[in-house]
Design a protein that fits this description.
Number of strands: 8
Number of helices: 9
Shape: globular
Distance between the termini: 62 Å
Helix content: 40-55%
Order of helices and strands: EHHHEEHEEHEHHEEHH
CATH class of the largest domain: Alpha Beta
CATH superfamily of the largest domain: Nucleotide cyclase, GGDEF domain
Structural class: alpha+beta
Strand content: 15-25%
């Protein structure tokens, strides 16, 4: 993120807080992932896969990393992106009521979450609206704090939720449309059973041109099934991936182009008690 391309540094090179859409994303199980490597080669393989996936997703989100930089730089509403350890922060300065910027972040984070999940890196996070400053040295501002706190206290499962500030903004934007069901937010987001709005990232698999990315959905299914099988002995963690399976199945049910075979048979992975000693 060079200063000349950083939307949080003015023409004089001075750092400026700007009202922004802020996304704070955490990679789930990062410590366990690092510890799981039994050799240096396994560690290198994990690093290669993680670095490749982050690089690919960053090229979509951050104009400074994209081959299409010049086109994106002509749009003053581009995002800033920073990854550190197991966290990612995205900032998108707001110039009006925030609807366009929120929509852009929904799209960017949907793509990011889909790519990460297909590679077995599940994420959770939150989106807020508030003041932000970010560069290669520091990330600062009330918007960051709200997004971080929402990720910590509200996200819980592998989902990117809306902090109160962002949810309030979305509710206001929905009023712009005579029929709320036709609003773009009604596709970008879903409301969970606990009332939280979250990013409906699987919809990236059926873009506006109508093409269905079946191979990617199959990969998504496989990664969730791997986690459900692997984490049976850790019920609190296992439950997070049952949530992911239920979301996967819900999305499949909502799209007629998806064959029923693409759903996850959650009964196969259900946890149940057993006798201490069996006669079998």
């Amino acid at each position: 993120m060079t200063e000349s391309r950083n939307p949080y540094i003015d023409a004089n090179g001075t750092p400026k807080l700007r009202r922004s859409v802020v996304g704070f994303i955490d990679i789930l199980g990062y410590t366990d992932l690092v510890k799981s490597a039994k050799s240096r080669k396994e560690s290198q393989d994990i690093l290669d896969r993680l670095h490749r996936t982050l690089k690919r997703s960053r090229e979509h989100v951050d104009p400074n990393q994209s081959e299409d930089t010049l086109r994106r730089l002509r749009d003053k509403d581009f995002s800033a992106f920073r990854a550190f350890t197991d966290n990612i922060v995205i900032g998108h300065p707001i110039h009006d009521d925030g609807e366009i910027e929120l929509g852009s972040v929904f799209n960017d984070l949907s793509y990011f979450q889909m790519l990460m999940t297909m590679e077995g890196f599940f994420v959770r996070g939150a989106i807020a609206i508030g003041d932000l400053y970010m560069d290669d040295i520091a990330v600062f501002g009330g918007g960051l704090i709200e997004a971080y706190e929402a990720e910590t206290t509200l996200a819980r499962d592998p989902r990117i939720v809306l902090a109160p500030s962002a949810q309030t903004a979305v509710n206001r934007h929905l009023e712009y449309y005579g029929r709320g069901s036709h609003a773009p937010q009604n596709r970008d987001l879903l409301r969970d059973s606990d009332g939280q709005y979250f990013v409906n990232y699987l919809d990236t698999l059926i873009p506006e041109n109508g093409h269905f990315y079946e191979k990617e959905l199959s990969s998504h299914k496989a990664r969730i099934e791997e986690k459900l099988a692997l984490l049976r002995s850790r019920p609190p963690v296992w439950a997070k991936y049952l949530w992911a399976a239920n979301y996967h199945n819900y999305w499949c049910d909502q799209n007629s182009c998806v064959d029923a075979s693409m759903k996850i048979d959650t009964e196969t992975f259900q946890l149940s008690p057993a006798r201490l000693v069996s006669d079998a």
